[in-house]
Design goal:
Blueprint (H helix, E strand, L loop, with lengths): L2 E6 L8 E6 L4 H9 L6 E4 L15 E4 L6 E5 L4 E5 L4 H8 L4 E2 L11 H6 L7 H4 L6 E7 L5 E5 L3 H6 L8 E8 L1 E2 L4 E9 L2 H11 L5 E6 L11 E8 L10 H4 L23 H14 L3 E8 H5 L17 E9 L3 H14 L7 E5 L13 E9 L5 H14 L3 E2 L12 H4 L3 H11 L8 H6 L2
Parallel strand pairs: 2-4, 3-4
Antiparallel strand pairs: 1-2, 5-6, 6-10, 7-11, 8-9, 8-10, 12-14, 12-15, 13-14, 13-17, 16-18, 16-19, 17-18
Bound molecules: flavin-adenine dinucleotide.
């Protein structure tokens, strides 16, 4: 089993720290890595797509789970897969789509592992219909700090602590996941523009439930009457009959097709993403979208994972990296969303990856992020002057609206706000104290936020 001391960061590249990176290839090696990880403990890591410091552990161990990558059982009649936690959603799509099954929830990148999907209890564009990833997990195997492997079923405290528990209850070794049936690997997509934030929220509220997937790209640099203007995309898995006759797609309707552009160059200058360039991009993006179009057929990779087509796209923010800020506030807190969007657009944050979405019912994970309501996610170059103080103010606003920020994106929240945002945190701490009294499973995130 290899173990090198390396610099480890999240996808946003904001807070690198050094750790011993250990890559177990068997469950026995995983158990040995946990047993021998030393006083600074260890944390499981998947494909490192968490933006902040959740999968890093300064001065300790980081368990790279991608070496545990076997798909054990596929029940193609029931739509259930049992696989190792280090298997990526990308691989599952390759294997499962030809069989007529799709992952139940996918985030904006398919380069995440099943373990990372459970650890952060990820959500996708279908949250309003399908909930978060944990809703589809039937059971999992967890290697805990005492060296035991526990089979963890639904409706148990350990399941609810582990789903969204950011790797802090132990190392997920395997998971059994229920899949989504599909007739084709294409999406039928409706696109429409919204002229401002109120228009956008009204459209999302009125018609979200007509589609399995729904999300809006929002122009956070637009001001005045155009504040919050947006492009909504809604989609459903295309049924076979929606595919044109005599096309390649019709002949091979379940083929998983992806496309790749050249990788982003190594680190662009930090000034490149300025208000001017991002403002121009946003203007172009808004104008390029059709006012209204229905039934466009798109590849799964185009609809769900456009950024995956550009390897290492996170380098475009320069060496300083970028912060992803994502919060959710409940229904009835629309004014808080309006205030926050106005503040961001007045602050002129050069953000071009900003999305607004409505969440449906929450799942029981104690530290799971989604609650019914409105979620906004945006990226901001980390070098922006005064960014820390500005985001602290947004945190206050979110907390005052009984909302929360997403731990998988976070690298900077102040610990005193965490209990207000996650009311089950005391239960989580108590379970962890009993399960792992020496704090074997620990991360930069858990130390920073005193989880
Ligand atoms: C372009 C992009 C788009 C994204 N879009 C979304 C989105 O739409 N919705 C969303 O919810 N998230 C989104 N994310 C965030 C991403 O889905 C989550 O951070 C996810 O957890 C990353 O999985 P990973 O395998 O890379 O895990 P890592 O980033 O390596 O780890 C994430 C957390 O999971 C834990 N973990 C990993 N493996 C295990 C394991 N085997 N056992 C126990 N714990 C484990 C880690 O300890 C850590 O706390 C996006 C990220 C990117 C880069």
């Amino acid at each position: 089993m290899s173990a090198d001391t390396v610099s480890v960061t999240g996808w946003g590249r904001t807070a690198p720290t050094s750790a011993r990176l250990i890559r177990p290839r068997t469950y026995e090696e995983a158990a040995a890595a946990v047993r021998d990880c030393g006083a600074r403990g260890g944390i499981p890591r998947g494909l490192g797509r968490a933006y902040g410091d959740a999968a890093q552990n300064a001065g300790g161990s980081v368990f790279d789970m991608t070496g545990l990558d076997r798909i054990h059982v596929i029940d193609a009649s029931e739509g259930i897969v049992l696989c190792d936690a280090g298997v990526s959603l990308h691989r599952l799509m390759h294997v499962l789509l030809p069989l007529g099954w799709f992952v139940p929830v996918t985030p904006g990148t398919r380069y995440v592992t099943v373990g990372g999907a459970i650890g952060a209890d990820i959500h996708g564009k279908n949250h309003h219909v399908s909930g978060s990833f944990s809703r589809h997990v039937l059971s999992l195997e967890l290697l805990t700090a005492d060296g035991e492997v526990r089979t963890v079923g639904r409706d148990t405290p350990l399941f609810d602590a582990t789903t969204g528990g950011m790797g802090l209850t132990g190392m997920i070794l395997t998971a059994t996941v229920r899949l989504q049936p599909v007739e084709t690997s294409l999406m039928s997509v409706d696109t429409e523009r919204a002229r401002d934030l109120d228009d956008l929220m009204a459209r999302l509220t009125a018609t979200d439930h007509h589609h399995r997937y729904s999300v809006a790209w929002i122009d956070l640099l637009a001001r005045g009457a155009a504040t919050g203007r947006a492009v909504l995309t809604r989609g459903d898995h295309a049924p076979l009959e929606a595919l044109p006759e005599r096309t390649r797609a019709r002949r091979d309707p379940l083929a998983f097709r992806t496309s790749h552009l050249p990788a982003a160059p190594a680190f662009l200058p930090e000034g490149l993403l300025s208000r001017t360039t991002v403002g121009l991009f946003n203007e172009f993006w808004f104008r390029k979208a059709p006012r209204a179009r229905t039934g466009e057929l798109q590849k799964i990779s185009t609809f769900f994972h456009p950024l995956d087509g550009v390897p290492h796209w996170n380098r475009i923010y320069g060496r300083g990296g970028f912060v992803q800020y994502q919060f959710v506030v409940g229904h009835g807190q629309e004014d808080a969303v309006r205030r926050i969007v106005r503040r961001i657009s007045q602050r002129r944050c050069p953000s071009f990856l900003a999305v607004l979405k409505r969440f449906g019912d929450a799942d029981p994970g104690w530290l799971s992020f989604p609650v019914p309501g409105w979620t906004l996610a945006l990226d901001i170059p980390a070098h922006l002057p005064g960014l820390g103080a500005f985001l602290d103010e947004l945190d206050e606003e979110v907390a005052a609206a009984d909302g929360r920020v997403y731990l998988a994106k976070d690298s900077r929240l102040r610990p005193e706000l965490l209990t207000a945002m996650y009311p089950r945190l005391p239960d989580f701490r108590a379970l962890r104290a009993e399960l792992d009294p020496r704090g074997v499973f620990t991360s930069d995130l858990s130390r920073r936020l005193d989880i």
